[in-house]
Amino acid sequence: MAGRNSGVTSPAVWLGLAAIVVLADQVTKTLILGAFELGDVRRVTDFFNLVRAHNPGAAFSLLADASGWQRWFFVGVGAVASVVIVWMIFSHPTQRLFCFAVSMILGGAVGNVIDRLLHGYVVDFLQFRFSVLEPVFRGGYFPSFNVADSAITLGAICLIVDELRRVRKG
Hints:
By secondary structure, this protein is mainly alpha-helical. The protein has one domain. The protein is 56% helix and 11% strand. The protein has a 3-stranded antiparallel beta sheet. Strand 1 (41-43) and strand 2 form a beta hairpin. Helix 2 (69-91) packs antiparallel against helix 3 (96-119). The longest helix has 25 residues, at 11-35.
């Protein structure tokens, strides 16, 4: 939804995009929770499985073995990041790639915060295996992840691209 004369995309579009990410994330996680028991694996291809994994930590299970404080720490980090991102969207509405990137990050962060609040852990269900990963990940299995994680990763990549484009112009 572009502004009438300004070519500026409304912050509501970016917040709506983040909401779509949250919805897609939560629907897929609900489907997994209903169809899989913890630890179940359903092979889809030679390199891709659907699984049900619970991650009480952060990326790559960072702090997963902590005593429980990490749940509230990551909820707090996600909440603060969400407020900052909303402020950034309203502060830079003319920067479309930037707003897309932070909208993806916002949607992913909120999706994972919802999991932490509801369950105490994040539900992961996408698992890829590549033999080239064997030296780094046991059996070549990249750590399981979800739609929210994918959105955060896409957003981070877009932020890098946006910054590289900005540097080239300057």
